[in-house]
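pls design
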């Protein structure tokens, strides 16, 4: 999968997470995303959408097996997305989560509670 194709999949995963949050909250959420990254280092850290993308794209033939995605906080101008990288070794695309088919490593999860800021 090329970098551009993976970017499209990443952006789609963020959009689905936003739609899931809207269903849960009952109102629209901002599409300006900040990413709360978990799993690539000892502590979580806040990244821009582009910084997060650069962290998770490993190349055309190697991918994280599962990347959990969920909106966990919504503010007036931005939505904070939890992004959790599984502890599995990177693998070929055909060994990623890919449910539903075509989602690649991105796994949608629902926040128990979405914080409003």
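designed seq:
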């Amino acid at each position: 999968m090329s970098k551009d194709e993976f970017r499209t999949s990443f952006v789609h995963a963020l959009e689905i997470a936003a739609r899931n949050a809207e269903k849960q909250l009952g109102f629209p959420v901002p599409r300006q995303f900040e990413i709360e990254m978990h799993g690539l280092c000892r502590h979580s850290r806040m990244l821009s959408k582009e910084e997060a993308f650069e962290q998770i794209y490993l190349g055309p033939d190697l991918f994280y097996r599962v990347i959990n995605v969920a909106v966990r906080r919504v503010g007036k101008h931005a939505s904070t997305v939890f992004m959790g990288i599984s502890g599995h070794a990177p693998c070929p695309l055909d060994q990623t989560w890919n449910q539903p088919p075509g989602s690649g490593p991105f796994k949608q999860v629902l926040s128990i509670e979405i914080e409003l800021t």
